[in-house]
Amino acid sequence: MAIQTITPDGNADGVADDDVVDLATAPVAQETPKTSDTATDRTAALLQAARAWLNQDPDPETQAQLRALINAVDDGDTVALSNLHSRFDTRLAFGTAGLRGEIAAGPNRMNRVLVSQTAAGLATYLRRHAAPGVTPSVVIGYDGRKNSQIFATDTASLMAGAGVRAILLPRLLPTPVLAFAVRHLDASCGVMVTASHNPANDNGYKVYLGGANNGAQIVSPDDKAISDEILRVAADEHVPHLPRGSYETADEDVVQAYIIQTAGLAHTPRAQVNAVYTAMHGVGWDTTRRVLEKAGFDLPTLVDAQIAPDAAFPTVAFPNPEEPGAMDLAYETAREVSAELIIANDPDADRLAVAIPDLSSASGYRRLSGNEVGAILGWRAAALAASPDGDTDGGLAENTGTLACSIVSSPALRAVADAYGLRFVETLTGFKWVSRVPDLIYGFEEALGYLVNPDTVRDKDGISAAVVLLSLVSDLKSEGKTLAGYLDLFSEKFGHFASGQISVRVSELSTIALVMTRLRESPPTHVGRIRVDEIDDFRWGFGDLPPSDVLRIRLTDGSRVMVRPSGTEPKLKVYIDTRCTVGTLVERRSAAQAALDELDRGMRALIA
Question: Domain Alpha-D-phosphohexomutase alpha/beta/alpha: where (predicted)?
Answer without folding.
Answer: 92-232, 268-355, 395-487
